[in-house]
Write a structure and sequence with these properties.
Layout: H1 3-10, H2 17-32, E1 36-42, E2 48-55, E3 66-67, H3 74-82, E4 85-88, H4 120-128, E5 133-142, E6 157-167, H5 175-221
Antiparallel strand pairs: 1-2, 1-6, 2-3, 4-5, 5-6
Helix pairs in contact: 1-5, 2-5
């Protein structure tokens, strides 16, 4: 289902994350039919920004809007690291009560469920945005800032952002299509990871170049060189 979309993502030139995001949201919108699809990036201070958007012409644009870190709390971010897809078909639907065995010592947790009912405050948040249904998919990349304890171990992952789909009426996406979107997100995450690594390498080269220039200036100012003393 996502073969052509995957090929288009992989064929894009490197060095342009904005173009990558633009193509992704357009492909996801074409696949799923949601009214609005956004690429939502987390910054270093954990606040979020809508960096790309594909929407119906009758909808208010969200592109460029910034949201505080508290909009998506740490508990939700942790769940997005574990569960890559979260779908709400109808935020106004009456939740179905879970009946569990009385002998269970702990309440049944639905944290791993893709289709669990939304919390009341989140349902109200969606309604305030004019959204009845949503599909949210996480974008995870390698966390280079974490000591992994050896190259043999699996690298830690961090949440780069989310792809958020909104619809103004109830909408259900069947599993095969959700799975196709999830595969597309994996391809997108690989591309983003490459771009992040390239940007980090460029920053490192710039720092080394600056250090070289500074050292050269110091050596020219002091022909005898720089003296260091250790105890």
């Amino acid at each position: 289902l996502a073969a052509k979309a995957t090929s288009r993502l992989q064929s894009l030139p490197s060095g342009n994350i904005s173009l990558l995001c633009d193509v992704l949201v357009r492909e996801v919108k074409d696949l799923t039919g949601y009214d609005r699809v956004m690429a939502y990036k987390f910054h270093e201070d954990e606040h979020g920004e809508v960096v790309s958007e594909c929407r119906g012409s009758d909808l208010e644009p969200y592109l460029g809007l910034h949201y505080p870190a508290t909009d998506i709390p740490q508990a939700s971010r942790f769940l997005f690291l574990k569960n890559k897809v979260r779908m709400i078909c109808d935020c106004s639907a009456q939740p179905v009560r879970i009946i569990q065995d009385k002998r269970l010592s702990q309440p049944l947790s639905l944290c791993g469920s893709t289709l669990r009912a939304p919390h009341g405050c989140h349902a109200q948040y969606m309604k305030n945005m004019g959204s009845i249904a949503s599909l949210v998919m996480s974008v995870t990349i390698n966390d280079e800032g974490v000591d992994h304890g050896g190259e043999e171990q699996q690298k830690s992952r961090k949440l780069w952002g989310l792809v958020v789909c909104h619809h103004s009426s109830p909408r259900f996406i069947p599993f095969p299509l959700r799975y196709a979107c999830e595969f597309l997100m994996q391809v997108f995450a690989i591309q983003v990871n490459k771009e992040v690594e390239i940007a980090a390498q460029k920053r490192e080269k710039h720092i080394l170049k600056t250090q070289t220039v500074l050292c050269d200036m110091l050596l020219r100012e002091a022909p005898v060189g720089i003296f260091t003393q250790s105890p």
